[in-house]
Amino acid sequence: MAVDLPRHGAAPSRSSHPDPRLERLLAHPALWRAGSAARVPVWPSGFAPLDEALPGGGWPRSGLIEILPARWGQGELRLMLPALAAITSRSEARWCVWVAPPLQPFAPALAGAGMALTRLLIARAPPHARRAAALWAIEQALGSGACDSVLAWAKDAPARQIRRLQLAAQRGNALGVLFRPRESAREASPAMLRVALEPRRGGVRVTLLKSRGGARGALDLRWEDHERT
To answer: pTM for the complete prediction?
Structure first.
């Protein structure tokens, strides 16, 4: 699309009727504009220092993020529990779907953390088709419009598939959380936010590897910081 530039000293003309082609381009979910991060709706993480570092002040309500722990069960789920409790306990809450969790969820602990178990749905993929079935389930749940959040554990996922998940999350207005091994940080990813985790005594070290409009670097969180709030 060609645009005529104004002559030196002349003010650019302003039309009260924006070009519909430009409007469609700006509305495309793959396009990110500087300064737009602060306007993205978020879910507070439950940890004030983390919210200060995250774009917009929390986890995005719509879009895909990656959390990369050193090993499964080393703080990735506990980091998300305060937000999940707030999301599922709302009167208008949609589903919270977990796809292929590697460990058996302990319902009393989840309820004790404030999660509404009536809003939780767990999907497990059959062993003979684990990766393909899991990725299909994640994409369907994210794009369905029936979920507030979808959490999934995947040892490996092609970049093209992660791109599909990102678009599905935006289409379904859902928070997608993809847990992948720490070594996945060496691979490029279309996810809007990437966080690496390392366990620390009484908490976890969070390293923001990729953060559109947010901070970069590491911060240490203590679990009791949330328990006191």
So the answer is: 0.80
Residue ranges covered by each domain of the chain = 40-227
CA–CA gap between residue 109 and residue 210 (Å, rounded): 31
Helix ranges (DSSP H) in 54-186: 76-88, 107-112, 130-143, 159-171
C-alpha 209/C-alpha 182 separation (Å) is 11
Give the side-chain half-sphere CA count within 13 A for 216.
5
Angle at 43 between CA 42 and CA 48, to 5 degrees: 105
Summarised one tens digit per residue, pLDDT across range 161-197 is 999 999 999 999 999 999 999 999 999 899 999 999 9
Q: Please answer whether residues 100 and 154 qualify as being in contact, where contact means their C-beta atoms are separated by less than 8 angstroms.
A: yes
- Separation between Cα atoms, residue 139 and residue 132, nearest integer Å: 11
Torsion angle of C-alpha atoms 169, 221, 38, 34, degrees rounded to 10: -80
CATH code: domain 40-227 is 3.40.50.300
Query: Strand pairing of 175-179 and 147-153?
Result: parallel
Quote the strand ranges of the chain, DSSP E.
Answer: 42-43, 59-60, 63-69, 95-99, 120-123, 147-153, 175-179, 193-200, 203-211, 217-222
Identify the burial level of 145 via C-beta atoms within 10 angstroms of its C-beta, where 0-12 means exposed, 13-18 middle and 19 or more buried: exposed
Given a cut of 70, is residue 210 above it in pLDDT? yes
Query: Which one, of 85, 29, 78, 65, lies nearest residue 179 by Cα?
Result: 65
Residue 54: alpha-carbon gap to chain centroid: 11
| Per-residue pLDDT band at 34 (split at 50, 70, 90) | very low
